[in-house]
Design brief:
Blueprint lengths: L1 H11 L13 E4 L1 H15 L5 H23 L10 H15 L7 H11 L8 E9 L2 H12 L5 H6 L1 E7 H8 L1 H9 L5 E6 L2 E11 L10 H25 L3 E4 L4
Parallel strand pairs: 1-6
Antiparallel strand pairs: 2-3, 2-5, 4-5
């Protein structure tokens, strides 16, 4: 994914991908480059990037520059007029091709599976309705009106259905205490409930338990995925070693 993003950035702004440097071991991230990255992001996504997102794109550009210079040092650009992304891609292929990964030991695969079992297990899923309320008093007013056989218009307009949402995503968006309270509700009944976003009225409809997949039933797939992950890890370490040979300089952002 990282190298795909690098390629997209380079093709999009090819005219300014060669900032001046004081030596072959100094990479200068110019103010103009940083400005172009921000403008490219704004154009593609119609919103301003955060400083962290700008830094991520700069890091991708630096990684591409490192690969390009190393590729040129190895003569990968001789007789080839392709842009530097193609040269960097050649070196990328060489780096990944040089990685040799053997099968993991039993302890290695079990440790990896314990950390990555989310790829194989089916998480607990929850279906519920949720409508915001301005306060606890308003949430209770909604409940009182519904108990009297009247469904408030505000509730009709704002209630949202959440069907088959993984429990963890609910905990992230609305808070673990909210999830705990939601799961404790009787099914099919409206209740006032508070989340980190404020007060709501909620109705729990269904909870589908998680399905835990034992490693024995997916062992061959797990081993192949472990090899893929280990290959990527070693290749990225090789890139980091190449990058460490360079001094990265930043001009003040414009």
């Amino acid at each position: 994914m990282h190298f795909t993003l690098i390629a997209g950035l380079i093709f999009g702004v090819n005219a300014w991908l060669h900032p001046p440097s004081e030596s072959d071991r100094v990479i200068t991230v110019t103010a103009d480059l940083q400005r172009q990255i921000r403008e490219q992001w704004d154009e593609d996504r119609e919103r301003h990037p955060t400083p962290e997102q700008v830094q991520q794109m700069v890091d991708l550009w630096v990684a591409s520059e490192v690969l390009y210079r190393e590729g040129k040092t190895m003569g990968l650009d001789r007789g080839d007029e392709m842009i530097r992304t193609r040269v960097a891609h050649k070196l990328q292929i060489m780096i990944f091709g040089d990685v040799r990964v053997s099968s993991p030991t039993e302890s290695q695969i079990r440790e990896w599976y314990a950390q990555n079992r989310w790829r194989y297990d089916t998480p607990e899923k929850v279906s519920f309705y949720l409508a915001p309320a301005a306060s606890e008093a308003e949430a209770n007013r909604f409940l009182t009106e519904m108990e009297a056989g009247k469904e408030p218009e505000e509730l009709q307009q704002s209630a949202r259905a959440f069907i088959g949402r993984p429990s963890q995503s609910i905990a992230v968006s609305l808070g673990q205490p909210f999830l705990d309270r939601l799961l404790a509700l009787p099914h099919g009944q409206w209740h006032a409930i508070q989340s980190k976003e404020g007060w709501h009225v909620a109705r729990l409809d269904e909870v589908v338990p998680a399905v835990i997949v034992p490693i024995e039933s997916v062992l061959s797939q797990a081993i192949e995925q472990w090899k893929t992950d280990e290959t990527r890890r070693q290749a990225l370490e090789a890139l980091a070693r190449l990058r460490s040979k360079y001094t990265i300089r930043y001009e003040p952002a414009a």
